[in-house]
Amino acid sequence: MIFVYLLYSYFNVSLCQQYVKKINLKVILIPVHEQQYVFEPFYRGENKKLKIRGLGLGLPFSKMLAKAQKGDLVLKESNEQGTTFTIIVEELN
């Protein structure tokens, strides 16, 4: 529930049946052959393993939080313009 409250307060939305938010990351391109692995714990893309610090837990943890709130986080598309993730969260009761 904390995740949903933070989400609602961060994006300043009112409660509804289902809230869908698209998150577009303009600088990140995820190659097609890596897209199926982005939500795997500890997975780091080939282009960023040695260039960007991290453990590969950000997206898996975010997806886990969304699912804990009866929602989901999905990779919608990734191209030269950027990568789009969609988060879906159900209404709070």
Automatic annotation (TrEMBL):
Its EC number is 2.7.13.3. InterPro entries: HATPase_C_sf, HATPase_dom, Sig_transdc_His_kin-like_C. SUPFAM superfamilies: ATPase domain of HSP90 chaperone/DNA topoisomerase II/histidine kinase. One of its GO terms (molecular function) is ATP binding. This is histidine kinase. Residues 30-90 form the Histidine kinase/HSP90-like ATPase domain. It is an enzyme of class 2 (transferase). The lineage of its organism: Bacteria, Bacillati, Bacillota, Bacilli, Bacillales. The keyword Kinase does not apply. Keywords: ATP-binding, Nucleotide-binding, Two-component regulatory system. It catalyses: ATP + protein L-histidine = ADP + protein N-phospho-L-histidine. Pfam families: HATPase_c.
